[in-house]
Specification:
The complex is a heterodimer of chains A (about 450) and B (about 250). With about 450 residues, chain A is an alpha/beta fold. Chain A contains 8 helices and 22 strands. In chain A, strand 2 and strand 3 form a beta hairpin. The longest helix of chain A has 18 residues. The termini of chain A are far apart. Chain B is of the alpha/beta class. Chain B is built from 10 helices and 12 strands. In chain B, strands 6-9-10-3-11-12 form a 6-stranded mixed β-sheet, with helices on both faces. In chain B, strands 2-1-4-5 form a 4-stranded antiparallel β-sheet, covered by helices on one side. Classes of the chains: A alpha/beta (about 450), B alpha/beta (about 250). At the A-B interface, helix 6 and helix 7 of A face helix 2, strand 7 and helix 3 of B. The structure holds adenosine-5'-triphosphate and magnesium ion. Magnesium ion binds next to helix 1 of chain B.
Chain lengths: ~450, ~250
C-alpha cells in the first residue's frame, strides 16, 4: 500500500491494516492515532523539531512485527535487579511466567486487560490521554508520528495503577527486552532491508499520596542485530503522589530507538525521573512533562554516553501550567569518536504559572575531535514572577587535570577514565536503589573503557 | 640521580629555559631561587613531563634514563615527584580514591602488590597525621575548594604517601602560615634519607631555615647564574637579585 504520506508511512499503515480488530476504548484510540499518523506522515528534515534527526535509514527499511520469542533460561538475567517486582516483555509481548508483578497494585499486561477489572476505569481514563499521537497537550500541538504509531500498533503493554495512599516499597522493574530474530537484513540494492519492530507501551498512574519507584529497562544482547523499538509511556502523578522513575536504555548498537514519554503531575506531586542512554545506534527520546497542579515538582535528569557513529537526541518540553511549580533538568552527555548528540530543551511557562522555579542544564563532554554535540535550551515565559535559568556547555577534558593525575603515576587511559567518570557520576549515583546504582556505575565504567583505543599514551 | 645538561625549552615561540645545568645526587637537598618569571616552574614542569613545553636542546637524565623518553606516569613510577605551585582542582574525584589509585598504579608498575582498602587506609591515616592534614580533606574531591594552604599540604601528603626518590617542590611554602610552614618542613625532613633527594623551589630564605639545603641555585632568565651553599640564600635575602646578575655564573651545582 502506498500513501499520500509517502512510501515509508505506507509500510506502517500496512502493519495497522494487518491487525485484527479489538473492541472498546482501545479501538477508538487506535483509530484516532492512525488517522493522525496517516494525515501527517513521518517528519522530514524540513520539520524544525526533527531537523537534526536523520530518519533516512530507519524509513528505508521494511518494518515487520517482531517475532514471538520464548525466553531462554538466563536470557533476561543480565538486566534484572534483585528485590524488585517484575514485569518482563520480550519483543513487546508479556512474559507472564517470568514476571512477578506487585500485589497491592494493579499491574496488568494491556492485552489481558480484563473488562471491568479492578482499576479498569483508571486505565481507560488515562491510557492514551496524553501519549495519543500529539507532540504535547497544547492546543496547537502537532502530530508526533512515533507516539501515534505506538498508540495505533502497540500489542502488549504494562498498566500500573497504584491506589490512593499506597506506598510500594520495592521498585517495580519493567524490562523491555528485544530479541531480534532476523539476521542483518540486506536484500541488496533497491529492495528495503527488513526490520523487526515493537511498540512497548507503559501507563503508570500514581494515585493520590501514593509512592512508588518504576525502573524501565530497554535492553538487548549487545551483539544482537538491528531492530526498531518505538516505546511510549504515560505517567500520571495524582495530588501528593511521589513517583520515581528511571529509564535505562541499553539497546543493541544497531538498534533504532524512538521513544515518547509524557508525565502529568498534579497538585504537590513529585515526578523524579532519570533517563540513562548507553545503547542504540539512532536514539531519540521525546519527553513532555506537564506541571498541572499548584506546587507540582519534577526532576528530569539524563545521561547519554555515545561512541562510534551513534546518535542520541533528547527533546524535552516542560510546561508549567500552575503557580508555584518547580522543574529541574540536568542532562549530561559524553561523546566519543564520530558520535553526535542533540539536546533540545524547552521550558514553557504559562501565564497562570506565577512563582515558577525552573532550571535546565545541559553539559557535554567531547572526547574526540570528530564528536559533535548540539544543545538548544529554550525558554518561553508568559508569566512575570518566575525564576527560570538555563545553561549549556560543550567542553573537552581538562588537560591540566589529566596531567596532574599522570604526574602522580596514574596511566593516561586510567586517568582519562577517572575524569570522564567524575563528569558523569552524579547522574548514576543519583539512583537510590543499590542494585540499580551499582549496575549504572558498572555500565558507565565499561562504556568508558570500551572503544578507548591505544595510540594515545603520551 | 638527576642530571640536567644545557636544557633549552620553549612554549610556542617563547624560549624560557636557555641552557640549564643541574646535577642532584641522592641524599641532597637543592634550593632553586630566582625572580618571578625566571623559569623555575617551567623547569619543574619539564622534569615532570608536561607536553606544552618543547625541549629544543640539552638532556634530562634520571638514574641514567632519558626522561624525555618517558611519559609523565612513567617518571612518577621511576620515583620522580612534583609538588605543583598551583595544584589542580579535580571535581568528582575523591582525594583518597585518587591517592589510592596513584599509589597502586605506581606499585603495579614496579611489580609490587596493590594495597587493599584496609592497608591503604592505615597508611593514609598515618601519613596524614605526619603532615597534619585534616581527615575531612581526604573525603573531599581533589583540591576542590581547598584553601591555598590546604592545597599545599595536600601536595606534601601525596609526597608522603608516594615516597618518591626525587621530590621537586615548587613554591610549596607560598601561602602557608608559619605553623603550616613548620609542619610541611617537618614532613620533608621526616622523609629525608640517604637515597632520596629534594629540589626545593622557593622565594623565601625562611623555608630554608627549616629545610637546610646543601646547595642553592639562582635561576635568572632561564639559566642558572649562580650556585653556592646555604649561605647564598641569606646573601640573596639581603642584596636581592640585582647584585647577583653581575656575579659570574657557576653552572652545575652538584
Ligand atoms: N604557555 C605560556 N605561554 C607564554 N609564556 C609562558 C607560558 N608559560 C610560561 N610562560 C612564561 O615563561 C616565563 C617563566 O614562567 P615560570 O612559570 O617558569 O616562572 P617562575 O620562575 O616559576 O615564576 P614565579 O616565581 O612567578 O612562579 C614567564 O615569563 C611566563 O610568562
Ligand atoms: Mg613558578
Amino acid at each position: 500500500m502506498s500513501s499520500a504520506a509517502g512510501p515509508a508511512a505506507g509500510r506502517y499503515l500496512d502493519l495497522y491494516s494487518r491487525r485484527t480488530g479489538e473492541a472498546g476504548f482501545l479501538r477508538a484510540l487506535r483509530q484516532q492515532a492512525i488517522g493522525r499518523f496517516e494525515a501527517a506522515g513521518f517528519p522530514t528534515s524540513r520539520d524544525e523539531e526533527w531537523r537534526q534527526t536523520n530518519l533516512g535509514p530507519l524509513l528505508r527499511a521494511e518494518p515487520e512485527p517482531a517475532a514471538r520469542h520464548t525466553l531462554r533460561a538466563g536470557e533476561a538475567a543480565p538486566f534484572l535487579y534483585p528485590d524488585c517486582h517484575r514485569m518482563i516483555f520480550v519483543n513487546g509481548r508479556y512474559a507472564a511466567e517470568a514476571s512477578s508483578p506487585p500485589e497491592r497494585v494493579t499491574a496488568v499486561a494491556l492485552a489481558d486487560l480484563p473488562a471491568g477489572g479492578e482499576n479498569a476505569d483508571a486505565i481507560a481514563e488515562h491510557l492514551g490521554a496524553t501519549a495519543c499521537g500529539l507532540a504535547s497537550c497544547s492546543a496547537d500541538a502537532r502530530v508526533h508520528a512515533f507516539a501515534a504509531l505506538n498508540t495505533a500498533l502497540f500489542g502488549d503493554g504494562a498498566a500500573i495503577v497504584i491506589p490512593e495512599g499506597v506506598v510500594v516499597t520495592r521498585p517495580i522493574q519493567v524490562l523491555w527486552l528485544s530479541v531480534p530474530t532476523l539476521g542483518r537484513g540486506d536484500a541488496g540494492d533497491g529492495a528495503a532491508s527488513r526490520l523487526e519492530v515493537s511498540f512497548p507501551r507503559l501507563l503508570v498512574v500514581a494515585g493520590e499520596n501514593s509512592q512508588a519507584t518504576v525502573l524501565e529497562t530497554h535492553a538487548a544482547d549487545p551483539a544482537a542485530g538491528g531492530y526498531f523499538v518505538c516505546p511510549a509511556a504515560e505517567f500520571v502523578c495524582r495530588a501528593g503522589a511521589v513517583l520515581r522513575h528511571t529509564r535505562l536504555q541499553v539497546d543493541a548498537a544497531d538498534a533504532f530507538h524512538l521513544g515518547f514519554q509524557h508525565a502529568r503531575i498534579e497538585r504537590a506531586a513529585v515526578f523524579d525521573s532519570s533517563s540513562l542512554s548507553f545503547g542504540g545506534g539512532l536514539v531519540r527520546n521525546d519527553t513532555v512533562a506537564l506541571l498541572d497542579g499548584e506546587g507540582a515538582d519534577c526532576s528530569l535528569d539524563g545521561l547519554y554516553v555515545v561512541g562510534g557513529s551513534r546518535f542520541v537526541d533528547n527533546h524535552m518540553r516542560v510546561e508549567h501550567r500552575q503557580p508555584r511549580t518547580t522543574s529541574h533538568q540536568l542532562y549530561k552527555g559524553v561523546l566519543d569518536d564520530r558520535a553526535r548528540s542533540v539536546f533540545n530543551g524547552r521550558i514553557y511557562v504559562h501565564q497562570a504559572a506565577q512563582k515558577t522555579d525552573a532550571k535546565q542544564t545541559n553539559r557535554n563532554l567531547l572526547l574526540s575531535r570528530s564528536a559533535l554535540a548540539n544543545s538548544n535550551p529554550q525558554l518561553e515565559i508568559f508569566a512575570d514572577d518566575v525564576r527560570c535559568t538555563h545553561g549549556s556547555t560543550i567542553g573537552r577534558l581538562d588537560e591540566d587535570a589529566l596531567f596532574y593525575l599522570r604526574v602522580r603515576g596514574i596511566p593516561r587511559e586510567e586517568a582519562h577514565g577517572m575524569l570522564v567518570y567524575a563528569f558523569a557520576r552524579e547522574l548514576v549515583e543519583k539512583a537510590s536503589f543499590g542494585p540499580l546504582r551499582e549496575d549504572l556505575e558498572g555500565r558507565l565504567r565499561s562504556s568508558l573503557n570500551g572503544g578507548r583505543g591505544g595510540g594515545r599514551s603520551r | 640521580m638527576l642530571r640536567v645538561s644545557d636544557l633549552h625549552a620553549r612554549v610556542e615561540e617563547h624560549e624560557i629555559l636557555r641552557g640549564v645545568d643541574l646535577q642532584v645526587e641522592a641524599g641532597e637537598v637543592h634550593a632553586v631561587m630566582g625572580p618571578n618569571g625566571s623559569g623555575k616552574s617551567t623547569l619543574a614542569q619539564v622534569l615532570a613531563g608536561r607536553e606544552d613545553y618543547e625541549v629544543t636542546a640539552g638532556s634530562l637524565e634520571f638514574d641514567g634514563d632519558d626522561l624525555q623518553e618517558m611519559a609523565p606516569e612513567e617518571r612518577a613510577h621511576a620515583g620522580l615527584f612534583l609538588a605543583f605551585q598551583y595544584p589542580v582542582e579535580i571535581p568528582g574525584v575523591g582525594n583518597s580514591y585518587f591517592l589510592k589509585a596513584a599509589l597502586n598504579a605506581t606499585r603495579k608498575a614496579r611489580g609490587e602488590q596493590a594495597l587493599d582498602a584496609m592497608d591503604f587506609l592505615r597508611l593514609l591515616r598515618e601519613r596524614a597525621n605526619l603532615v597534619d592534614v585534616d581527615e575531612a580533606l581526604l573525603r573531599r574531591p581533589v583540591n576542590e575548594g581547598f584553601s591555598g594552604g590546604e592545597k599545599k599540604r595536600n601536595e606534601i601528603l601525596q609526597m608522603a604517601v608516594l615516597e618518591p626518590r626525587l621530590a621537586v617542590l615548587d613554591e610549596t611554602d607560598s601561602g602557608l602560615d608559619i605553623d603550616a610552614l613548620k609542619t610541611v618542613a617537618a614532613g620533608v625532613n621526616a622523609l629525608r634519607r640517604e637515597d632520596r633527594a629534594f629540589v626545593v623551589i622557593t622565594h623565601y630564605q625562611r623555608l630554608l631555615n627549616y629545610i637546610v639545603p646543601d646547595h642553592v641555585h639562582v635561576l635568572l632568565d632561564g639559566r642558572i647564574v649562580r650556585s653556592g651553599g646555604s649561605g647564598l640564600a641569606l646573601e640573596l635575602e639581603e642584596r636581592g637579585y640585582a647584585g647577583i646578575t653581575e656575579a659570574s655564573a657557576g653552572g652545575s651545582g652538584g
